[in-house]
Amino acid sequence: MMNNNLFNYTLHLADTTLILGQRNAAWCGHGPVLEQDIAITNISLDLIGQSRSFYQYAATQKADGSTEDSFAYLRSEREFKNCLLVEQPNGDWAQTILRQFLFSSFQHLLFQQLQNNKDATLAAIAEKSLKEVTYHLRWSSEWVIRLGDGTEESRNKMLKAITELWPFTGEQFIPATYEENMGINLLSIKEVWLKKVTDILTEATLQVPENIFMHTGGKNGIHTEQLGFILTELQYIQKTYPGCEW
Amino acid sequence: MVTMNNIIADKESVYACLQEIADPEIPVLSIIDLGIVRNIQITDDELEVFITSTYTGCPAMDMIAADIRMKLSSLGFTKIKITSLISPIWTTDWMSEEGKRKLIEYGIAPPDKRFLIAKDGVDCPHCQSSNTRLISEFGSTACKALFQCNDCQEPFDYFKCH
Ligand SMILES: [Zn+2]
């Protein structure tokens, strides 16, 4: 019999990486300079690659003919379990950078823990992805510092990005039932994460907000209005021409 | 040794055949040089090839699998199974010395243990100078970083340690 906790957690990991990959992909051809355009789209590719591994694993668990594609293209908004942070709009370069940094700093810690999970497949995907995530974290950290400690304009954009995105960072550390049952310890990550984020923001002459209301729900399918727009675009072809291939 | 459709196929000839399949993004490297073929198994009339992907998001992997299938069917195999392994994790340590030499000739700096994280100083594949600088941690593909040589001024890709 299928283990629902494992299945839902696998989908949560898959959805989170897919949606952030899709968001970053929208920068393709629009990056501020060529090297950074390539960087953000490479990160997108890494994330979509991770999501494929997770979806493929979810498909073997479900064993009902579901595929990585059917999970990505044929599920509705309420079935997606990604965290809310990753579905937030690209905004400007500062907002995209900050979103990546807030996520990569979390993912880096989570995957370090996950690579020791008793589920061998999740552990292997996490171990493999960690090498990429290390690059994502370095790259986004450097950009946060460059923009925060940059010009008045870049600094103001970072300040605005922090205001926009910080309310979506609390959800990461509130475990869904399936996470708890998978033995994922988010509290142990929280402190290390906050220290890392504080260190980088301080170096960027920025501050970590305090006592901010935190949104929740994404892990259980309750999303901000953003996800609907993403899925409309992402799933358009499969919904218009079901089963279409090329 | 197995005889199929009058074609004699043993592991050695399968490997020789796979040696001719190039990485679609770095055509100078074969998939054997890259170290992504982990094992092959020949049973009765079926051939199973075990591969590991380099990067999780490497778009070349689907194409490589299709190439393997096409190439091996020319050896006479009709039942070909390609199994993708996640574990053990592929690392650039699996790249053959031959592969690293080919990379340099091609103008790409091979993975270098002194630079686990890409930073200034990777040897220039054109003039061997180590007076080089990192331009971007992400190069023309996800597995490479972009450098420029301060001596010969040539830009070059560095195949990152992974
Ligand atoms: Zn040079």
Structure write-up:
The complex is a heterodimer of chains A (246) and B (162). Chain A is mostly helical. The model of chain A has no long low-confidence stretch (mean pLDDT 96). Chain A has a single domain, classed as Up-down Bundle (Ferritin), CATH 1.20.1260.10. Chain A has 10 helices and no strands. Chain B is α/β, with parallel strands linked by helices and 162 residues long. Chain B folds into 2 domains: 2-93, Fe-S cluster assembly (FSCA) (GMP Synthetase, Chain A, domain 3, 2-Layer Sandwich), CATH 3.30.300.130; 107-159, no CATH class. Chain B contains 4 helices and 9 strands, in the order E-E-H-H-E-E-H-E-H-E-E-E-E. Chain B has helices at residues 11-18, 31-34, 60-73, 97-106; strands spanning 2-4, 7-9, 37-43, 46-52, 79-85, 108-109, 132-136, 144-149, 155-159. A 4-stranded mixed β-sheet of chain B has the order 6-9-8-7. In chain B, strand 4 (46-52), helix 3 and strand 5 form a beta-alpha-beta unit. Chain B is elongated and about 55 Å long. The structure holds zinc ion. Zinc ion (ZN) is lined by residues 124, 126-127, 129, 149, 151-152, 154 of chain B.
